């Protein structure tokens, strides 16, 4: 029985299916055609063939432009119902390339798609909107099932396009005189089922990825190193849905993961980020249902988590299990309502704008005194006054409020060094990006830990705020804030000022508060509108006085049960 049931290698090869053999042969470099026994039945491999760009005339020597043969391979692959376009070993110099439906661009581990250093080799992506430029190396429009994979490299050669100018789209610049005539590394517009896996993307002349109006986007294991030019973003999303980013490493010069417009159903997990400006940056539009978890943020200046919006419908964000090492302005939310003219605010003007239901959980952060230039960015970036001695900023203005904001299990270690002049600062009635609020002299916020203005429904649970050097500012300031629960706050105090300052705020419950170092007072309450402030228990012995009242605040506004 054993002899009859066993198969020789020759017999096994005779029985195995033709597609399986063909696929195996392809992977070792043998042409993937049907066997002689199945002539005329090539349709078995439709949608599964491999198209080597060298077979279409690409040289891969880093000198001869290979744009046409690469595009030829992509076109043939798409016309034959899809498959894999292979970038094998070599440096394949290229200008603008269009990816198409059902095409997987596979870059071999020793293969490189190298952007041409010449502007004339690039064009705008056909049918790509012009906002923030549309000159590009790789793009796809209205395509389905597009993938870039492999362990190889896409190098934008972006240093060749450096002229010292950025796009001037920062606060108050509005793009005037900006440099938009340079290629992005990749743009995807209105694509579905887009997959980016494992490859290394580097040295773009502009943004690395612009993902616009796409659905079902899966990004896994991607590495981005983008620090040769100004506005070197990592991921830049606009109006996309069902986006999932995991296991990525991003080092860039500008926004690492910007989400502008109306992005929904987004998850970001198990990633690391470093940049001069911000990591998670949100503009206006309808940004909803976004979860960020298990991420490392290091050497990031300009606010790792930044929400700056005017007319917007922003809700249901969670940020959890995040470590921030050496950052400034760790979290900043600015909300101006419809008075903000941010060009990214795309929500129609019929609905009242809102920012609500934002959760921060299990955050550990170390905050430096001011930004530090990255040694691998060849141009310096000026430091704004408002970036110095930064804190967590929750700032709405006028008749608009942030709603239901919570911090649970958050520990922030600040550099300290804040001054009495900063502590006495009158905060301007603006809701710009976090550093814009603090820019006017003497610079920096009046609190070292958290400043909150116009918030309804604020929760601090097991929050610890400390500093390395003595700081003359309060730990927390609540200005026109209502419905507040603070439980288990531990914070260092200053002998020259209060631990908490409360201005025209009401319905506040403080329990189990700990004053870790001597402070002039525990609470300073100001304003006639301050009311129903309850202090229930806590370790307050380091405070010289329990409460100080000023500016028409009355003693009846505070109930002490300690």
Main attributes?
elongated; Pectate Lyase C-like; single chain; 8% helix; disordered N terminus; 562 residues; 40-stranded mixed beta sheet
Question: Mind explaining what this structure looks like?
Answer:
The chain is mainly β and 562 residues long. Among the domains are: 15-45, no CATH class; 51-159 and 183-237, Pectate Lyase C-like. It is 8% helix and 46% strand. The protein has a 40-stranded mixed β-sheet that branches. Residues 1-40 and 340-348 have low confidence and may be disordered.
CA-atom Rg in angstroms: 28 Å
Shape: elongated
What's the CATH class of the domain at 51-159 and 183-237, please?
Answer: Mainly Beta
CATH architecture call of the domain at 51-159 and 183-237: 3 Solenoid
- The unreliable regions are 1-40, 340-348
Largest sheet: 40 strands, mixed
Helix content: under 10%
User: Helix- and strand-based class?
Assistant: mainly beta
In short:
This protein is 8% helix and 46% strand. With 562 residues, it is mainly beta. The chain has a 40-stranded mixed beta sheet that branches.
Topology summary:
Blueprint: H1 2-5, H2 9-15, H3 18-27, E1 49-52, E2 61-65, H4 67-79, E3 83-87, E4 90-94, E5 97-98, E6 103-107, E7 111-115, E8 123-124, E9 135-141, E10 144-149, E11 153-155, E12 184-189, E13 192-197, E14 200-202, E15 209-212, E16 215-220, E17 223-226, E18 235-238, E19 241-246, E20 249-252, E21 257-260, E22 264-269, E23 272-274, E24 280-282, E25 288-300, E26 305-309, E27 313-327, E28 331-335, E29 354-367, E30 392-396, E31 402-416, H5 420-423, H6 434-438, E32 450-469, E33 476-487, E34 490-491, E35 498-503, E36 506-515, E37 519-526, E38 531-539, E39 543-550, E40 558-561
Parallel strand pairs: 1-3, 2-4, 3-6, 4-7, 5-9, 6-10, 7-11, 9-12, 10-13, 11-14, 12-15, 13-16, 14-17, 15-18, 16-19, 17-20, 18-21, 19-22, 20-23, 21-24, 22-25, 23-25, 24-26, 25-27, 26-28, 27-29, 28-30, 29-31, 30-32, 31-32, 32-33, 32-34, 33-35, 33-36, 34-36, 35-37, 36-38, 37-39, 38-40
Antiparallel strand pairs: 8-9
């Amino acid at each position: 029985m054993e002899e009859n049931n066993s198969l020789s290698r020759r017999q096994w090869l005779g029985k195995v299916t033709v597609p399986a053999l063909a696929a195996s042969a392809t992977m070792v470099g043998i042409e993937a055609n049907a066997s002689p026994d199945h002539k005329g039945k090539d349709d078995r491999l439709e949608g599964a063939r491999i198209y080597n760009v060298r077979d279409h005339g690409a040289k891969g020597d880093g000198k001869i432009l290979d744009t046409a043969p690469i595009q030829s391979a992509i076109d043939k692959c798409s016309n034959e119902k899809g498959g894999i376009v292979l970038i094998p070993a070599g440096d394949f110099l290229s200008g603008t390339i269009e990816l198409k439906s059902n095409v997987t661009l596979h870059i071999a581990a020793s293969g490189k798609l190298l952007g041409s250093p010449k502007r004339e080799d690039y064009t705008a992506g056909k049918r790509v909107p012009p906002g923030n430029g549309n000159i590009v190396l790789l793009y796809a429009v209205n395509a389905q099932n597009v993938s870039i994979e492999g362990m190889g490299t896409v190098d934008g050669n972006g240093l060749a396009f450096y002229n010292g100018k950025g796009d001037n789209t920062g606060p108050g610049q509005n793009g005037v005189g900006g440099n938009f005539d340079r290629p992005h590394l990749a743009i995807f517009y209105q694509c579905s089922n887009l997959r980016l896996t494992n490859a290394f993307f580097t040295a773009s002349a502009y943004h690395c990825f612009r993902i616009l109006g796409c659905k079902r986007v899966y990004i896994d294991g991607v590495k981005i190193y983008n620090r040769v030019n100004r506005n070197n973003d990592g991921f830049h999303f606009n109006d996309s849905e069902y986006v999932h980013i995991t296991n990525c490493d991003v080092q860039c010069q500008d926004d690492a993961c910007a989400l502008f417009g109306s992005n929904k159903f987004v998850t970001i997990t198990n990633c690391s980020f470093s940049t001069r400006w911000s990591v998670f940056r949100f503009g206006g539009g309808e940004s909803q249902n976004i979860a960020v978890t298990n991420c490392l943020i290091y050497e990031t200046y300009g606010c790792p988590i930044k929400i700056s919006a005017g007319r917007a419908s922003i809700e249901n964000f969670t940020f959890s299990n995040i470590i921030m090492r050496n950052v400034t302005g760790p979290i900043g939310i600015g909300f101006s309502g419809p008075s903000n003219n941010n060009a990214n605010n795309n929500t129609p003007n019929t609905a009242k704008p809102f920012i609500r239901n934002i959760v921060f959980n299990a955050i550990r952060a170390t905050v430096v005194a001011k930004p530090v230039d990255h040694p691998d960015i060849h141009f310096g970036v000026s430091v704004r006054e408002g970036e110095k001695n930064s804190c967590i900023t929750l700032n709405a203005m006028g008749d608009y409020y942030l709603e239901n904001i919570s911090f649970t299990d958050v520990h922030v270690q600040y550099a300290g060094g804040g001054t009495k002049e900063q502590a006495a600062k009158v905060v301007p009635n603006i809701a710009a990006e976090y550093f814009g609020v603090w820019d006017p002299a003497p610079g920096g916020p009046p609190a070292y830990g958290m400043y909150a203005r116009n918030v309804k429904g604020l929760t601090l649970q097991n929050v610890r705020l400390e500093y390395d050097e003595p700081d003359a500012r309060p730990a927390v300031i609540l200005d026109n804030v209502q419905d507040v629960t603070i439980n288990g706050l531990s914070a260092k105090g200053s002998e020259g000022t209060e631990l908490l300052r409360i201005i025209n705020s009401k319905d506040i419950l403080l329990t189990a508060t700990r004053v870790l170092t001597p402070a002039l007072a525990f609470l300073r309450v100001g304003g006639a509108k301050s009311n129903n402030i309850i202090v229930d228990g806590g370790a307050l012995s380091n405070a010289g006085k329990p409460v100080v009242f000023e500016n028409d605040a009355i003693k009846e506004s505070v109930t002490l049960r300690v």
